[in-house]
Amino acid sequence: TTDIRLLCSGQIITDISSVIKELTENSMDAKSTNISIALQSDGLKQITVTDNGTGIPLNDRDLICKRYHTSKIQGVTQLSTLRSFGFRGEALNSICSVAGKVTIITQTLDEPIGEKIEFRPNGEILSRSHLSVGIGTSVIVENLFVNFPVRKKFQESKLKKESKEIQKMITSYGVANPEIRFVFRSDPSVTILKQIAKSFEDNLVAIFGTTLFSQLFKIHYVFKEIQAEILCFIPQNTSDLKILTKSRADNQFYFVNKRPIQGSFFAKIINKKFRNFSSSRSFPFVVFMLTIDPSEYDVNLNPKKDNVLFHNKEILSEWLEKTFSEYYIPKQK
Ligand code: ADP
Ligand code: MG
After folding, report:
1. Closest ligand 1 atom to the C-alpha of 49?
2. Interface pTM, i.e. ipTM
3. How many Cα atoms within 13 Å fall on the side-chain side of residue 48?
4. Where does the DNA mismatch repair protein S5 domain start and stop, copy by copy (predicted)?
């Protein structure tokens, strides 16, 4: 519909990590508790994301890869109450247009047998056949950018950096979702695996290990003025700090309603307070989760949706300034 068009701002599939991001978020939106991501040739040859979610309803399948087809919202007015990752209905269509081939295997609870569907670059169906795989969805993306030599070359030139980014992204999703088991395989390398965890803390131990976890301090705060809550794990304010990281991207995880966020004002404040305190130039390990009413912010800034605009930013930043000034008191020299 025309409403949905308003939400769309161009190209979202620029690299392998954006394919993985979109497919993984679709799996999470489908209420999966088990998500597996597998790459062949670092993803250039094949990207497969398999989940045990709801599956794609039979009636939706004709349209699933068509532009602006989404089952998640009916119009822009619903954006302010949105809880899902997706809402533009662009991702599958864009992936089809830049991949050599896209295949979806899916089965819902209502069906005795699943279906395997192959799509054309314009999102139309090329073939369908029955296949039994169990409830859930598998999306297979082959030969990404095969008809886009410039983009393919560029992607090939930054594969190492890209694979670091992918690891960080999947780790982020793992951190934010204790209730989901994540499997990541990049052939021929080993599987990285996180089982379902009972609590947020257990989950951090499962991902980062007990040594790191034991050096963390937990801050939990519920705001009164706005519907918001912060859960944060940061290095303890002792002199014996082992969990410093050189590069900011490596070991800092910021989320707004489970959505990983880049370059936020939270990061700036926390890093500043920590550096004053530790008098080092490194960045601390941080897990920072803001849970906030969707009407309090806008994620619809760019297609990657990894930046946000808050209506009550002052309330949040004041709390951060105060809390972290009191926690990380610089030592007297
Ligand atoms: P969006 O996520 O913005 O709605 P997408 O192009 O990513 O758009 O997906 C289109 C639609 O396909 C979704 O709205 C959803 O109904 C369906 N879909 C995609 N992936 C899955 C999945 N793994 N499980 C169930 N449904 C899915
Ligand atoms: Mg989506």
Report:
1. 23
2. 0.99
3. 17
4. 204-325
Residues 260, 171: contact at Cβ < 8 Å?
A: no
> Please, is 120 exposed, middle or buried when counting C-beta atoms within 10 Å of its C-beta (0-12, 13-18, 19+)?
middle
Contact by Cβ (8 Å): 178, 203: yes
What phi and psi, each to the nearest 5 degrees, are found at residue 184? Answer: -130, 125
Q: How much is the pTM? A: 0.90
Domain extents in the chain: 2-194, 209-327
Element (H, E) at 233: strand 228-235
Tokens found for residue 271: 């890093």
The string of DSSP letters for 164-218 reads HHHHHHHHHHHHH-TTSEEEEEETTSPPEEE---SSHHHHHHHHH-HHHHHTEEE
Fold of the 209-327 domain: Ribosomal Protein S5; domain 2 (3.30.230)
Question: Do the two domains 2-194 and 209-327 of this chain adopt the same fold?
Answer: no
Spatial distance between the Cα atoms of 306 and 312, rounded to a whole number of angstroms: 18
Q: State how far the Cα of 137 lies from the Cα of 118, in Å rounded to an integer.
A: 13
Q: Which of 92, 103, 125, 135 to mutate to test the pocket of ligand 1 (most atoms within 8 A of CB)?
A: 92
d(CA 80, CA 309): 12
Task: Report d(CA 317, CA 114) in Å as an integer.
Answer: 49
User: Model confidence over 254-304: pLDDT tens digits?
Assistant: 999 998 887 788 999 999 988 888 877 788 899 999 999 988 988 765 656
Asked if residue 155 lies in contact with residue 144, where contact means CB atoms within 8 angstroms, the answer is yes
Exposed e or buried b per residue across 318-328, where buried means at least 16 C-beta atoms within 10 angstroms of its C-beta? ebbeebbeebb
CATH number attached to the domain at 2-194: 3.30.565.10
The pLDDT tens digits of the residues spanning 19-29 come to 999 999 999 99
Q: Taking ligand 2, which is a single-atom ion, which protein residues have CB atoms under 5 Å away?
A: 26, 86, 91
